[in-house]
Amino acid sequence: xxxxxxxxxxxxxxxxxxxxxxxxxxxxxxxxxxxxxxxxxxxxxxxxxxxxxxxxxxxxxxxxxxxxxxxxxxxxxxxxxxxxxxxxxxxxxxxxxxxxxxxxxxxxxxxxxxxxxxxxxxxxxxxxxxxxxxxxxxxxxxxxxxxxxxxxxxxxxxxxxxxxxxxxxxxxxxxxxxxxxxxxxxxxxxxxxxxxxxxxxxxxxxxxxxxxxxxxxxxxxxxxxxxxxxxxxxxxxxxxxxxxxxxxxxxxxxxxxxxxxxxxxxxxxxxxxxxxxxxxxxxxxxxxxxxxxxxxxxxxxxxxxxxxxxxxxxxxxxxxxxxxxxxxxxxxxxxxxxxxxxxxxxxxxxxxxxxxxxxxx
Amino acid sequence: xxxxxxxxxxxxxxxxxxxxxxxxxxxxxxxxxxxxxxxxxxxxxxxxxxxxxxxxxxxxxxxxxxxxxxxxxxxxxxxxxxxxxxxxxxxxxxxxxxxxxxxxxxxxxxxxxxxxxxxxxxxxxxxxxxxxxxxxxxxxxxxxxxxxxxx
Amino acid sequence: xxxxxxxxxxxxxxxxxxxxxxxxxxxxxxxxxxxxxxxxxxxxxxxxxxxxxxxxxxxxxxxxxxxxxxxxxxxxxxxxxxxxxxxxxxxxxxxxxxxxxxxxxxxxxxxxxxxxxxxxxxxxxxxxxxxxxxxxxxxxxxxxxxxxxxxxxxxxxxxxxxxxxxxxxxxxxxxxxxxxxxxxxxxxxxxxxxxxxxxxxxxxxxxxxxxxxxxxxxxxxxxxxxxxxxxxxxxxxxxxxxxxxxxxxxxxxxxxxxxxxxxxxxxxxxxxxxxxxxxxxxxxxxxxxxxxxxxxxxxxxxxxxxxxxxxxxxxxxxxxxxxxxxxxxxxxxxxxxxxxxxxxxxxxxxxxxxxxxxxxxxxxxxxxx
Lengths: 361, 151, 369
Fold this sequence. Notes:
Number of strands of chain A: 2
Strand content of chain C: 5-15%
Number of helices of chain C: 15
Radius of gyration of chain A: 22 Å
Shape of chain C: globular
Largest sheet of chain A: 2 strands, antiparallel
Number of helices of chain A: 15
Helix content of chain A: 55-70%
Strand order of the largest sheet of chain C: 1-2-3
Strand order of the largest sheet of chain A: 1-2
Oligomer: heterotrimer
């Protein structure tokens, strides 16, 4: 017995109602607006949740309780933070390049929102099932480097420039290994589109089906995501104890909130990508052949599976931040160019060999 | 070397220089012009090897200054105190010990800053505690600070 | 180097005086070529309070209280140095009970100081969590201090003649609880930070100080011992009963950041060992030898050396027979340890500067006095 209502049926019902009441083009426009509002709500809800979760988890890992005063058990803490940032003055330094200074936060935020487009939250719930989904995500996320370099340069500050340069070098380097890690799964599932990759995991997640090469690719991808997000242990660009706050030193108020928001958005987009590509997306935990188990797992709706996997990877990323010390810039780049990249290339060859031989489940 | 051996060694090597003994150290009084040679001999001689200058300071006795050097040897574990009397308070000058012991650089900066004793041959003599425009040398006994109000 | 000597591609940046990782108000001018440091110049004086000048106007029992504020993390040991110097002048000795109490307090201070150093080191290198673990035990030590001495940071408990008050009745029990917890937790610290690959990559082979440099620059304490120089004052010139307890002088000959780090952890173990030997054998008796109301030292000079958590502290008292000292000179360990920064930083990267300053464990108020 399936759940009586699935998300797909709800959205189909809304669509048919709109089309019956309004002119089809107007209905199309209203649906676009609804989708946009849904995305913004999702981003806001996830950001608030992430901020609270990070602070609480940090507290528990450090033998303390985290926020406890604002709201019951500190749940309104993120709201308080947002209000604080809204009320602060957005200063623009006098000698800075004013246009680039003001535009940089928007560039970074827009790029993060654009990467949300092909993600599949549940069966059929996708903004745009583009047939180059994975490629689209990696390509668009590279554009954030432009925003960071704009922010660092236009601040007219030695430290910001140093931080932006380091950050740019880091992101550009780590994208290589990240892309190669994703290619392993693309090879095995035979398609770049997100829905195709998820569908190919109907009889088991890639991390189980693809065994060794996919596990190596998963580990590489998690490391690479942490580096792309400028999070510890790769957060040299914004390390407080070294060079104040790096490329967003000069920003305050809502402009700083945009950088903050885009970092959290990127964090959960990359977690969603990892959950989709390696852990099966909205697919429940199936083992090919065990029909009873598969039937049981289907009771839990796809969207719950999807968010569960995403939160698991988010937890990993938060865990890393509060445990490891920071890597120096040359050690960071050495890790990528001398260790991760050769390992990724060899892994791709190995995975190609296995895919050709058909030695995956 | 024990204190006795050190005493006789100093009498032999530097005849004519007064020696004293206080509760902790053997004290050798050296003239201003000979201090660098004496220090160099004490550092480089195999029998003494004073390679660790652990303190260098000055005392203001209101009629003259007294420079005090405390040194020890990491090989023989004996200590020595050297004192130099500086008669001229306004133009006190001494050769710097920095070529022998690098630690002397900061000690001499501090002494210049707080007492006004200059050191020739110092790589970069500067005020370290007081600001660069400060007038006067605070640790002198006759130092008057115009901003201080006596309650 | 002066700003006029600057070449074409170098640039000068300023670190501090307000900076999260300079452990005090220190301003460092760094000449950089890209990411590499060519030269450095420290600027001091931001926290110069004139302790030596102030001591010339205070009585012998009073100026000791200023010294707690020099190296505030080894406050007891600073007071111990001054008290011993005054006792040397008066030619008295503290009673046996007072000596053992002094050693216990000094070793507890050393433990507390090393705990804070460990936490701050993690914080500077980016691992935020060790800070909270380090303060777990430090809180216990500070509570023990508060019960007996009355305050947590600047205790003013050790005085010429002995100690100010007797021990709190709960002292022995609480110290035993602390020792048990600390011994168990040192293993946890090893897992959290010492064994971590990233931490090792940032500290091994970085900031090497040779033994000749350490001796020539006047470095003492863990900085010099990590380069192989034997300089523990507790062994060379024992005071207050240190010759009656058994402990090892920890040495290492590598001289890099990791050697200094490892050495302080080993020193913590040695401190625990000393406390274990003494905690059950505190002799009975009086805790203070009464001195006259106004203390006057006979004319002369008195020099006392002690081992603080950071190195050798020397108190040089010159007296002319009056009731105030004529000149007090504090030979502080951090003043000379700062000299080690310049040769270590040549050729290193900015990221290394932070880890070098963290392992040197400087306290700037100790430099500026």
